[in-house]
């Protein structure tokens, strides 16, 4: 018999005892049943090594029967007699260990790439393109703890994507986005503070993507040569073809509307003969021609970006390139001074009047959804304009930006001034890709070197004739 308290006695006590009354065991010193307001509770009272009286709760009655509760009390008493840890201290130690395990588990959960990506998405909420790269390229690692990601994982990913035909430049961009997020997780991302890092160090801090093979370097050179050609100034013939294509497209749209209006059911459609721009793509293209803006930045343009000074009549186009919106507290701002005579003023004011003279909102809003158009909406119109004007099929719409920069470089304008006008962070892109002489300059240079020999050289024709 472990206790003098029987089940019958416990039942009777639980029913009739007053609050705070105790039923003590005559066998196990300190073991008792305490009546509380709503339940009865098994308790064990003892004296610790320091001589302090303490009481431990064993459990509730009737969930815990007298013999079961007594067994626990006996085990505690034996432990105290042997000098083992105090039951309360032991219980506290177990609870602390459990809390530590729970905290560690929570930390491990936060270490998962996918979980941290959710947090990072809030930090970088204004940079959907960057977040899209991480989600698209590395979702297969979202269940992996960030500190367990290895260079081998990235090597394998890189090889698979290269074999699938993705360009190295694309993969460099994807990896750069991932590495930046891991730097942020470790609290080391440049220009972006994170005061609660979850990593002690970025596991890919010293890693670089595999070097290009010989064949890949050859293909890259060919691609660079192709891009270099695209960055050259449009020839007069190409410019004329573009303008012809735009004029033909405008007339085609007007003629199509006239045919529609001849049908009774289409009488609600407005005539396009009385408007300057029968389609948004035409002023959209004129902006690209005259500013070198990226298509994505033109889609994001708002009427608020066009400032008019009523005192001197000058216009200024001010905007932040979308590529740099997320970079620091003071992102790049392009200030395009148009003065009073720039042809772009006429384009914008005419288009504004045609749209009902809005003072705010997108310059080219989507007609189907609220907000910006799809960033590829211009491509089908550009394709058709090229067909109508006889423009080389390979000429991309982005080439308007290349032409704009190349033209300013060719005219001897300062790379620093050009950088500010096109929204580059520095002049490195311009000096690397645009600061080059044309074929005519090179021909003159080589001829100049030959002229230095004067008449001291003998032409092959004369040499042959002399024989």
From TrEMBL:
Q: Which GO terms describe its biological process?
A: DNA integration; DNA recombination
Which CDD domains is this protein grouped with?
Answer: DNA_BRE_C
By sequence similarity, the record places it as follows: Belongs to the 'phage' integrase family.
Q: Does the keyword Zinc-finger apply?
A: no
Please, which domain of life does this record's source organism belong to? Bacteria
Record's Pfam families? Arm-DNA-bind_3 (PF13356), Phage_integrase (PF00589)
The protein's UniProt keywords, in alphabetical order, are: DNA integration, DNA recombination, DNA-binding
Task: Kindly give the Gene3D superfamilies that the UniProt entry links to this protein.
Answer: 1.10.150.130, Integrase, DNA-binding domain, Intergrase catalytic core
Q: Which residues form the Tyr recombinase domain?
A: 256-447
The yes or no answer to whether the keyword DNA-binding is present is yes
Question: What is the protein's given name?
Answer: Site-specific recombinase XerD
| InterPro entries the UniProt entry points to | DNA_brk_join_enz, Integrase-like_cat_sf, Integrase_catalytic, Integrase_DNA-bd_sf, Integrase_DNA_bind_dom, Integrase_recombinase_N, Tyrosine_recombinase_XerCD
Q: What is the lineage of its organism?
A: Bacteria, Pseudomonadati, Pseudomonadota, Gammaproteobacteria, Alteromonadales
MF GO annotations: DNA binding
């Amino acid at each position: 018999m472990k206790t003098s308290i029987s089940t019958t006695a416990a039942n009777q006590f639980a029913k009739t005892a007053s609050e705070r009354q105790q039923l003590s065991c005559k066998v196990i010193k300190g073991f008792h049943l305490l009546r509380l307001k709503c339940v009865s509770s098994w308790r064990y009272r003892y004296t610790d090594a320091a001589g302090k009286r303490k009481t431990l709760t064993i459990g509730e009655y009737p969930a815990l029967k007298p013999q079961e509760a007594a067994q626990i009390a006996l085990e505690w008493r034996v432990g105290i007699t042997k000098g083992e840890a105090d039951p309360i201290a032991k219980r506290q130690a177990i609870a602390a260990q459990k809390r530590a395990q729970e905290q560690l588990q929570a930390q491990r959960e936060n270490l998962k790439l996918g979980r941290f990506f959710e947090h990072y998405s809030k930090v970088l909420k204004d940079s959907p393109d960057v977040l899209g790269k991480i989600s698209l390229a590395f979702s297969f690692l979202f269940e992996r703890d960030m500190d367990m990601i290895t260079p081998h994982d990235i090597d394998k990913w890189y090889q698979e994507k290269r074999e699938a035909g993705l360009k190295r430049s694309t993969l460099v961009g994807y990896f750069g986005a991932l590495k930046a997020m891991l730097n942020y997780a470790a609290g080391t991302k440049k220009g972006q503070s994170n005061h609660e890092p979850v990593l002690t160090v970025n596991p890919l801090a010293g890693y670089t993507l595999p070097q290009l093979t010989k064949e890949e370097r050859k293909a890259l050179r060919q691609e660079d040569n192709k891009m270099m050609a695209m960055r050259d100034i449009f020839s007069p013939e190409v410019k004329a073809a573009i303008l012809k294509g735009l004029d033909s497209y405008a007339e085609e749209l007007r003629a199509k509307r006239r045919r529609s209006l001849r049908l009774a059911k289409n009488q609600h459609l407005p005539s396009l003969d009385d408007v300057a721009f029968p389609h948004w793509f035409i002023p959209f293209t004129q902006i690209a021609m005259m500013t070198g803006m990226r298509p994505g930045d033109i889609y994001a343009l708002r009427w608020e970006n066009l400032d008019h000074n009523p005192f001197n009549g000058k216009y200024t186009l001010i905007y932040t390139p979308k590529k740099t919106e997320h970079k620091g507290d003071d992102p790049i701002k392009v200030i395009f001074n148009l003065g009073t005579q720039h042809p772009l003023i006429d384009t914008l004011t005419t288009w504004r009047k045609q749209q009902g003279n809005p003072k705010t909102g997108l310059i080219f809003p989507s007609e189907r959804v609220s907000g910006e158009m799809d960033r590829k909406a211009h491509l089908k119109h550009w394709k058709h304009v090229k067909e109508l004007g006889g423009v080389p099929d390979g000429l991309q719409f982005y080439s308007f930006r290349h032409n704009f920069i190349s033209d300013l470089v060719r005219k001897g304008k300062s790379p620093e001034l050009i950088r500010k006008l096109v929204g580059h962070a520095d002049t490195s892109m311009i000096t690397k890709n645009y600061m080059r002489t044309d074929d005519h300059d090179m021909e003159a240079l080589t001829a100049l070197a030959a002229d230095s020999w004067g008449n001291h050289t003998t032409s092959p024709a004369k040499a042959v004739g002399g024989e």
